[in-house]
């Protein structure tokens, strides 16, 4: 823990006075500071000028990152019959119906994404209070309630990232690993920021994207010049 604290202090000193950087400079700085013994996740946080308590200011969506996330995404699928078989063949980690519902109700949630066929939603709906707060509830707008099960699984495994604004108006996500090439991280970052920009709600007034900050799992954060990241 002492070594971690020393490393963090050293990184903060290196980051001091270096804010509102270009995307490329921020990526390079964070990668240089990431010295953990594991492949740290490269993370982005966007502070938005919204109040998510109002329905017309909610921000949520999905984006396929061009270079993937570098994460092994575990997928649970609610399906029966041929669709259940299709899910297994497409690489789903967990497939079930009532049995899967009971497992989740018992407190076992060992997956990162949940997909359901439309006929399974009466069952899945009972799990709203469990899956909702974890941002795991299947949603047709995000492509996770669908009859195209294999396509949804491939998209999730291939680097698709869901995002949703928190109560504070912050959207955050892991968009790669520090082992990625600088150019690939920069491309993923711009793709993510662009998707959030396109998700600007009708009720948002004034400056929509107030602040963009990036970090790795074990590093401080550094801010990015918004215009450098938005390619709209």
Description:
The chain is an alpha/beta fold and 232 residues long. Helix content is 35%, strand content 21%. The protein contains 9 helices and 9 strands. It has helices spanning 2-15, 23-33, 81-90, 98-105, 121-124, 128-131, 149-157, 182-198, 226-229; strands at residues 41-48, 60-64, 75-78, 94-96, 113-116, 160-164, 170-177, 209-216, 222-224. The strands form 3 sheets. A 4-stranded antiparallel sheet has the order 7-1-8-9. A 3-stranded parallel sheet has the order 4-3-5, sandwiched between helices. It has a two-stranded antiparallel sheet with strand order 2-6. A hairpin with a 5-residue loop joins strand 8 (209-216) and strand 9. Helix 2 (23-33) packs across helix 8 (182-198) and helix 3 packs parallel to helix 7 (149-157). The longest helix is centred in the last third of the chain and has 17 residues, at 182-198.
Oligomer: single chain
Shape: globular
The SSE string, one letter per element, is HHEEEHEHEHHHEEHEEH
What is the makeup of the main sheet?
4 strands, antiparallel
Mean pLDDT: 92
Helix-and-strand structural type: alpha/beta
Please count the helical segments.
Answer: 9
How many strands appear in the DSSP assignment? Answer: 9
Fraction of residues in H or I helices: 25-40%
Low-pLDDT runs:
none
Strand order of the largest sheet: 7-1-8-9
Percent strand equals 15-25%
Quick summary of this structure?
The chain has 232 residues and is of the alpha/beta class.
């Amino acid at each position: 823990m002492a070594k971690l604290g020393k490393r963090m202090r050293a990184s903060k000193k290196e980051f001091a006075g270096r804010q509102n950087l270009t995307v490329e400079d921020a990526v390079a700085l964070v990668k240089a500071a990431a010295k953990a013994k594991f492949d740290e996740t490269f993370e982005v946080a966007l502070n938005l000028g919204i109040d998510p308590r109002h329905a017309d200011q909610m921000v949520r969506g999905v984006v396929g990152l061009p270079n993937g996330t570098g994460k092994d995404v575990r997928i649970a699928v609610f399906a029966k019959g041929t669709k259940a078989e299709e899910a297994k063949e497409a690489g789903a980690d967990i497939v079930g119906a009532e049995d899967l519902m009971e497992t989740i109700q018992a407190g076992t949630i060992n997956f990162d994404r949940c997909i359901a066929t439309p006929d399974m939603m009466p069952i899945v709906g009972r799990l709203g209070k469990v899956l909702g707060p974890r941002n795991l509830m299947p949603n047709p707008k995000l492509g996770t309630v669908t009859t195209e099960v294999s396509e949804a699984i491939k998209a999730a495994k291939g680097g698709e990232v869901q995002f949703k604004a928190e109560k504070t108006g912050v959207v955050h996500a892991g968009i790669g690993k520090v082992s990625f090439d600088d150019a690939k991280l920069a491309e993923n970052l711009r793709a993510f920021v662009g998707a959030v920009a396109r998700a600007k709600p009708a009720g948002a007034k004034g400056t929509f994207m107030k602040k963009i900050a990036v970090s790795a799992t074990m590093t401080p954060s550094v801010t990015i010049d918004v215009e450098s990241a938005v390619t709209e």
